[in-house]
Design a protein that fits this description.
This is Tetratricopeptide repeat protein. InterPro entries: TPR-like_helical_dom_sf. This protein is mainly α and 993 residues long. 75% of the residues lie in helices and 0% in strands. It has 47 helices and two strands. A two-stranded antiparallel ribbon has the order 1-2. Helix 24 runs antiparallel to helix 25, helix 43 (852-891) packs antiparallel against helix 44 and helix 44 (895-924) runs antiparallel to helix 45. The longest helix has 40 residues, at 852-891.
Length: 993
């Protein structure tokens, strides 16, 4: 750091340091700046440097350091108050409040000292003529901290009753403190009512709504308002993440994760802030943090993850169980220090209660990538009865048969339990046949051999029909593995045998239907082998005949047994597939719907899910979005808890896309959120989950929920990959994220994402997106103050707009470059040239345009270009006049230079007026369509006439605008604004006449 030469340089350095991120580096810089201030031997310089040092300490993890600079400031005030200007005198009294809270947060400071300081604050505020509002607020904090609830209520009432003055905390901070008291007193709804203006953006400050968002999380969860809690977590954590001083609010977000089944995200939060485990400058927030660390680590241990490695204090590795012990000990020791100082158990009681909390929500999906850690394997629940005894095994067998006979979703698990229990048991051939049969149905490379073993055992048990059915199932497995011809050869013989048995009454319809259905399935596989080949028609016809044989066999009998009802429903679905194959989409959709209805009527809705999806796909192809939505909703309803997580993710994502396409962004976001959650549960976070998060971010953006959308999209981009998800998805995610960041004022980051998206899009054959992204990136760069980079991006965008034959945005890029030039090195001359080029481009495009609509649009664009040219010249003139005035004050009478400056300013204003009059003329050619543009330009011209000392001309223009709107109603906001501006110009003209 170079030596500070004077007071102005010091002030610039202090201002620059104030803009740096919170933390030790900023604090160290403040200490150096104080040393530089002392060298200047200017008392106010030292005062300002001390005030800056105190502020940066307060907003950091080194809060314990702020007492020293404050003591020095107070001594300087008592000795020479005249050295303080009004601002520093105000600041000194303001930070009395910081000292009160700061002492309370340090357990080594005796309570008597805190009370003494409170009295000192009250005395000095009274001498300075300030309201007691801030004093009573500080008294309330002391009483609430030690658990003196009666005194706290009295101080709270007095705080609210006292007048607000310059020493009162801002509205946002006051409402935060008041709401916290209500929540801690069990009045969650009242707390949220107090916080509403802060949450809705009516009041804000440097640390609000950050802390209100964090404090609102548990009250919202307790009230069951989980959607708001999720939103406040995503929005609030984004605000506190970069602010080192907000460990307490950060702890609230960790606690939220522990209480909502988001333990994995809680660990991610701990990993982001390793210094929070050890920073000792603010013991109270360290107590808060360590308490929620213990809560989170205990929760992991409860889930069977006590041995999992987790983030913790530096210097060693930690398991969840070890971290829980360490954090609990740290929190307990800190709480005991406060309680010893306070003479109560209040702080310790609250810390213990916080660490002992139970989850408020079993699982709250957040949208960001947070996969629940897998628990350690648990011992299997004891089976009904004693599986080691014949009676216990009989119970298992009976339950497995009941589930398979009624086609329950988890029947195969029940048979697996039978197989495990019967490993060393002596069983009848029939029992062993069923075990082998269901083991084969579970899949695996040995399925064909298992089916053959089951068939042999069925035969041994005297059930030839079931033996044929098992062998037919084995044949179908061979077809699934590509051996269709061999499977057909096998099933043909089985088909003949079972029909003969059935005709003789040697087997039942159930066994016969099983063989006939297997044959139909294999023929369907044959049809799919070569759908467009020369034998496709023959294969389709053979498959259809086989399916209709199934229907002929079971239709009318499906009331006897659920298995037969399922066969009939599946056969209808197969006919639907055949109809689709033949090109009859309408017939296919109808048959799929009938299959769905049949499954539901049979009490088997979970089998209907895949066919609802087929109906949705066909409806989507036909442009029937309402039909697609109905089918997808039906699939979710019918599948219930039986659909696997990846299937649920897919269904929710499809429904989100359909609903979102219809403009319902709120419900679409809910389904995208569910899709992300189930994708995470399925272990598909990086594939399907990333896609769902990308969609969720877009839907949140459409609702104006920019902070939430940004958090979700950043999470999605961790996994989104052009090779997996496609270039378009990645570009769209970065595009949306850039839009969010721009709305949040994070312009440099917005520019980065827009530029990265543009870099991908530049390789696309169609360059519209590339041009748009380059233009948006230029806007962000300009807003971030990166003028040269913005000009470069606008130049590139302009080249692309020219290549795309888009004169509108070419002209806009030139105008934007003109405004940048005025702020940059090329100055007014470069700005004029670019604006003039924008006018020429627009005029040339207008001259070449034949289409009436295009001519009207280009005329409007030309009017706006003339208007902006005039505004730019007027801006330069105003800035030049201000500069000349300042130089004149400094030079005290160098009249010659002023006259030159006045001439240049007047010439610029005349040029601005000429351009604005051009805009009036151009807008006038558009008739009623250009009315607002024309009147806006007229009023701008009126202001310029006034600046040029021509009040009568200014008034005439204002009267013209009022005449243009004569008879117009008050419904149009633009009309009201134009009239109000015209009235102001008239009043100013009369005053200046």
């Amino acid at each position: 750091m170079g030596e500070i030469a004077d007071f102005d340089a010091l002030r610039r350095a202090l201002a620059e340091n104030s803009e740096q991120p919170e933390g030790p580096a900023r604090n160290a810089r403040a200490e150096l700046l104080l040393a530089e201030a002392e060298r200047l031997e200017v008392p106010l310089a030292v005062i300002e440097a001390l005030g800056h040092q105190l502020k940066v300490y307060n907003y950091s993890s080194e809060k314990d350091k702020m007492f020293v600079p404050f003591a020095r400031l107070l001594r300087m005030w008592d000795e020479r108050p005249e050295d303080f200007d009004a601002y520093e005198a105000h600041s000194l009294h303001w930070v009395f409040k910081w000292m009160s809270a700061g002492m309370l947060d340090q357990p080594h400071v005796p309570l008597a000292s805190v009370e003494k300081w409170l009295g000192e604050m009250e005395h000095r505020y009274r001498l300075a003529g300030h309201s007691e509002r801030a004093v009573r607020s500080a008294e309330f904090s002391v009483a609430a901290h030690v658990g003196d609830l009666a005194r706290a209520e009295r101080a709270y009432t007095a705080w609210l009753a006292a007048d607000r003055d310059a020493m009162a905390d801002c509205h946002a901070c006051e409402l935060h403190g008041q709401g916290v008291w209500q929540a801690e007193s069990g009045r969650d709804a009242e707390a949220l009512g107090l916080w509403r203006p802060v949450l809705e953006g009516e009041y804000s400050c440097a640390h609000e709504p950050h802390t209100v968002l964090a404090s609102s999380l548990k009250p919202l969860l307790r009230l069951g308002r989980v959607e708001e809690a999720r939103a406040n977590h995503l929005r609030g954590f984004r605000l506190v993440r970069p602010m080192e001083s907000m460990r307490g609010a950060y702890a609230d977000h960790v606690e939220f994760c522990a209480l909502t089944g988001n333990e994995a995200r809680g660990l991610e939060l701990l990993a982001e802030r390793p210094a929070y485990f050890t920073d000792t400058g603010h013991p109270r927030s360290r107590l808060d943090f360590m308490a929620v660390v213990a809560l989170l680590a205990d929760r992991l241990a409860e889930l069977g993850l006590g041995a999992q490695r987790v983030p913790g204090p530096a210097g060693r590795t930690w398991t969840a169980r070890e971290l829980a012990v360490h954090a609990r000990a740290e929190a307990t020791e800190l709480a005991e220090r406060f309680d010893r100082r306070n003479g109560t158990s209040y702080v310790g009681d609250r810390a213990r209660a916080r660490m002992a909390q139970r989850p408020l929500v079993e699982r709250l999906p957040l949208g960001v990538r947070t996969v629940r850690p897998a628990p350690a394997p648990e011992a299997a629940a004891p089976a009904p009865g004693n599986a080691d005894s014949p009676a216990g095994l009989s119970v298992l067998l009976a339950e497995a048969r009941r589930m398979s006979d009624t086609l329950r979703p988890h029947a195969l698990r029940a048979w697996a339990a039978v197989a495990e229990a019967a490993r060393d048991a002596e069983l009848e051939p029939r029992d062993r046949a069923e075990i082998a049969d269901h083991e084969a149905m579970a899949g695996g490379p040995e399925a064909v051999e298992l089916f053959e073993r089951a068939a042999a055992l069925y035969a041994e048990a005297g059930d030839p029909g079931e033996a044929l059915a098992a062998r037919a199932r084995g044949a179908y497995v061979r077809a699934l593995h590509g051996e269709v011809d061999a499977a057909l050869a096998v099933v043909a013989g089985l088909y003949d045998e079972v029909l003969a048995l059935y005709a003789d009454g040697a087997t039942g319809v159930r066994q016969t239907a099983a063989v006939v259905m297997s044959r139909a399935r294999i023929l369907m596989r044959r049809m799919h082998e070569d759908p467009a080949g020369p034998a496709a028609g023959t294969a389709l016809a053979a498959a259809e005949r086989a399916v209709r044989e199934v229907l002929a066999l079971v239709d009318g009998r499906d009331g006897d047994e659920v298995r037969l009802a399922a066969r009939a429903a599946e056969a209808r679905a197969m006919l639907a597939e055949l109809a689709g194959h033949a090109g009859d989409a309408g017939r296919a959709a109808e048959l799929f719907r009938r299959a769905v209805d049949a499954y539901v009527a049979a009490g088997l809705p979970w089998f209907a899910v895949e066919y609802e999806v087929q109906v949705a796909a066909l409806a989507h192809q036909a442009g029937d979005m309402a039909g697609a939505e109905r089918a997808l909703r039906g699939a979710l309803e019918h599948g219930g808890p039986y659909v696997e997580p990846v299937g649920r993710a897919q269904l929710h994502l499809q429904l989100a896309e359909v609903i979102g396409g219809g403009g319902e962004a709120v419900e679409a976001a809910e389904h995208a959120l569910e899709a992300a959650h189930w994708a995470d549960e399925a272990g598909e976070s990086g594939t399907l989950g990333a896609w769902a998060r990308q969609q969720l971010g877009g839907f949140l953006l459409r609702q104006g929920r920019y902070a939430e959308a940004a958090e979700v999209l950043e999470s999605a981009l961790v996994d989104l990959d052009p090779g997996t998800h496609g270039d378009g998805v990645v570009v769209q995610a970065r595009w949306w994220l850039g839009d969010c960041l721009g709305e949040l004022g994070e312009h440099r980051e917005a520019a980065e994402h827009r530029l990265r998206a543009a870099d991908i899009a530049r390789h696309w054959p169609e360059q519209q997106d590339h041009a748009t992204l380059a233009h948006l990136a230029a806007e962000s760069l300009g807003s971030a103050g990166l003028l040269d980079e913005a000009d470069e991006a606008y130049t590139r965008a302009g080249e692309l707009w020219r290549a795309l034959d888009n004169p509108y945005f070419l002209v806009r890029s030139l105008r934007a470059r003109g405004w940048l030039a005025l702020r940059g090195a090329s100055g007014a001359e470069g700005a004029r040239e670019l604006m003039a080029e924008a006018v020429r481009e627009c005029e040339e495009a207008l001259a070449a345009a034949a289409d009436p609509v295009a001519r009207e649009q280009l005329t409007d664009e030309l009017g706006h270009t003339h208007r902006q040219f005039g505004d730019l010249l007027a801006r330069w003139a105003a800035e030049r006049a201000e500069g000349e005035a300042a130089e004149g004050e400094a030079a005290e009478g160098e009249v010659g230079d002023d006259e030159v400056g006045d001439d240049e300013v007047r010439a610029a204003l005349e040029a601005a007026l000429a351009r604005t009059e051009e805009a009036v003329v151009v807008f006038g050619t558009l008739g009623a369509g250009g009315l607002h543009g024309r009147t806006g330009a007229e009023l701008a011209a009126g202001r310029l006439e006034a600046d040029l000392g021509r009040p009568d001309a200014a008034a005439a223009r204002a009267r013209g605008v009022l005449a243009a709107y004569e008879g117009a109603g008050d419904e149009d906001g633009t009309v009201l604004a134009r009239r109000a501006e015209a009235d102001r110009i008239l009043r100013a003209a009369r005053a200046g006449a």
